[in-house]
Amino acid sequence: MANLVIVESPSKAETIGSYLGSNYKVISSKGHIRDLPKSMLGIDMENGFEPHYINIRGKGDLIKEIKKEAKAANKVFLATDPDREGEAISWHLATTLGIPPEKALRASFNELTKTAIKKAIKTPRSIDMDLVNAQQARRILDRIVGYKLSPFLWETVKSGLSAGRVQSVATRVIVERENEIRAFVPSEYWTADAVLFDGKKAFTVKFYGNTDGKIKLSSEDDVRTVLEAVNGEKFKVVSVKHAQRSKLPAPPFTTSTMQQEASKKLGFRSERIMKVAQELYEGVNIGSENGGMQGLITYMRTDSLRISAEAQESARGYIAKKYGSEYLTETPHQYKTKKSAQDAHEAIRPSKVTVEPLKIKKYLTSDQYRLYKLIWERFVASQMQSAVLDTVSVEFDANGYIFRTSGYNVKFQGYMALYEETEDSTKTSDEEEIKNIKLPTLSEGQLLECREMNPQQHFTEPLPRFTEASLIKFFEETGIARPSTYTPIITTILARNYVEREGKSFVPTKLGEITTDIMLKHFPDIVDYKFTAEMEEKLDDIEDGKVGIDNVVGEFWEDFKKELSAAEEIADEIKVALPVEETDIICDKCGSRMIVKNGRFGKFAACPNYPQCRNTKPLTKPEEQEEQSDKKIIADFKCEKCGSDMVLRTGRFGSFFACVRYPECKFIKQRTKEIDVACPKCGAPIIVKKGKKSTFYSCSRYPECDFSSWDIPVNEKCPKCGDQLFRKKGKALIVCNREGCGFKKEATEATKTE
Questions:
Q1: What pLDDT digit, counting tens, does each position of 693-746 carry?
Q2: Residues 176-204: what's their mean pLDDT?
């Protein structure tokens, strides 16, 4: 019997299967097969915090299939992701299959390439129980906080609330920023620009101070004093300083920097970024001429800047051939990883630098191409020579008042020939203007005419609200989360209605503010930044084998138990009433003014007299709200033609996204919904489309790929002929549509839901 390789993802199974040949069978566990029960705590609090795991509902048939395949196999390799979560999945699989952890063949690799996979299969290791225990400790801590704290919030705030260890800290971050914005008192300040002319070219210089030092212009009177003093005066060049500076390339991506840059450059949300990165890592069919199924990037959950020597040499060879030897450094760039980083994996890079984005564009979805291009360019640029800038700084004197300007020319592009990092959005527009000025040739003692003075009034502004990019940066800088948890935290606080999106920014809801206030008063450790960061370090210590689960969890539980007991004693005093948001809708059953409620599918209008009156109504649709309030709903992706924002529009055939620059740019994109099944022809995601009579399922790469079906594709292949299986609409029946095959079976729980 062939050797068995078990992975957690169907698409990953397909990629690995294409490399290993007929002596290996690759199957997918489709994620975790065991977890803590949902109906109870599932932790033995009296006996070392032992977790009680059960098989996940709906995975019974899959577990039977895995056991059957494992029993018949010569060897069983566990090839799940190379992180804590992946190690835990392998451990659960080994436990379920009855394989002792020390005898389990763990195949671990950082990239899905033929070389890496074959090497991992040839040199398997045992399951790393320290890595597993770090994942278990996080799961246990989060379960204790969730199951012990949530009932307290139900009693004091609102039924059905969910508390979380790190999500509570993330909510606090957003609430405190909003409080800072509300409390901010703007102060007035002025700037004074002068437009000078050297006889050939006009350029702008900025007021700095006087010969004694820098002066802040706080009022119009201050500005008037300067304007009167320099009126009619010549501006004398006091100093001209030329310099040359090198501008280093940005390092290759970590999870955090990839999410920040993709958010800024591509307009993607973190959930979308990680979904696409997962697809690129697990493998895409890029055509037989490029090697078929390929994992295009290394593992995408990492906080390391380390790059393998092999990858560096490959990049340097590519750069020398493509750009020339002058674009290479004498020795490869070495980027220093932060002390707090786990450094378990390399930085995010292309698996093969020779697989250029443009070469495989036709095989990728738009999202896959744009993210792969960003990762590829960032990595290649990180190995290139620094850019060389010729800079000039000039100082002028007008009747004792000093004005300054500066600018630069690019002497040697270096890495800038390929890629430039997005500038920090906290930089002021003034800094941007100065940076981009190209100055005329000036010499000391030269007198210039002032053509006009441009005084401007300004007011200081508070720090901006957090966006996904800035929140992830905060997580990284404070150490309150790890790369694998950034996206789940953001998804959770949005789903729990603790925060809302306003454009690209996060705004706390009343529920988020009230809950945060209670947590700060009664559970200060849970929402303390330092405490949460230290807990992450303790999880790292478990991974390094320095400390055990029971020590970390036990210490946490002793302190948390005291806080919980103290709060429960005064629960009646803590109770708060959430403010009700009224609508303009009148209940047509009892005449009351209806209120806004949050449900599984979003907000709706409900009668305030529930349960006596159970009347509900849908609130205005997003597209109708757009028309009524003139507020545009902006997509989380950019126009593929010009890079502008895409906004939601409504036409005769439904809603779609259109470029905000219409009619100058007429690019549109239909709203589509993906299902978690790969196209059987090309491996791209399957999307749901509306037909004249019913919905149907089509490849997202249409018209390049013409796959479509009225039946619903499922993540299974026919055991008789190997073709794609489909579920018949409205029936609990799985069938093979291949003519003459005739295979069919009853749908399992996992495949019944559309």
A1: 667 888 876 766 778 888 888 877 777 777 788 888 767 788 887 777 778 887
A2: 94
Task: Say which residues have a Cβ less than 8 Å from residue 449's Cβ, sequence separation at least 6.
Answer: 196, 197, 234, 235
Q: Are strands 43-44 and 76-78 parallel, antiparallel or unpaired?
A: unpaired
Flag whether pLDDT at 623 surpasses 50. no
SS3 of 287-326: the string is CHHHCCEECCEECCCCCCCCCCHHHHHHHHHHHHHHCCHH
What are the residues whose beta carbons fall under 8 Å from the beta carbon of 569, sequence distance 6 or more?
Answer: none
Measured CA to CA, the distance from residue 513 to residue 80 in angstroms comes to: 40
Q: Which residues contact 573 (CB under 8 A, 6 or more apart)?
A: none
Rg of the chain on CA atoms, in Å = 30
Q: Which residues pair with residue 455 across a beta bridge?
A: 192
| Catalytic, out of 19, 24, 299, 363 | 299
Cα–Cα distance, 746 to 486 (Å, whole number): 39
What pLDDT score was predicted for residue 436? 47
pLDDT recorded at residue 753: 37
Number of H helices, E strands in the chain: 20, 35
Has 498 been annotated as catalytic?
Answer: no
CA-to-CA separations, 437 to 275, 380, 416, 451, 456, in angstroms, rounded: 40, 29, 18, 18, 20
DSSP-derived letter for residue 125 is B
- Cα of first residue to Cα of last residue in the chain, in angstroms, is 36
Closest by Cα among 163, 53, 129, 138 to 556: 138
Largest CA distance in the chain: 95
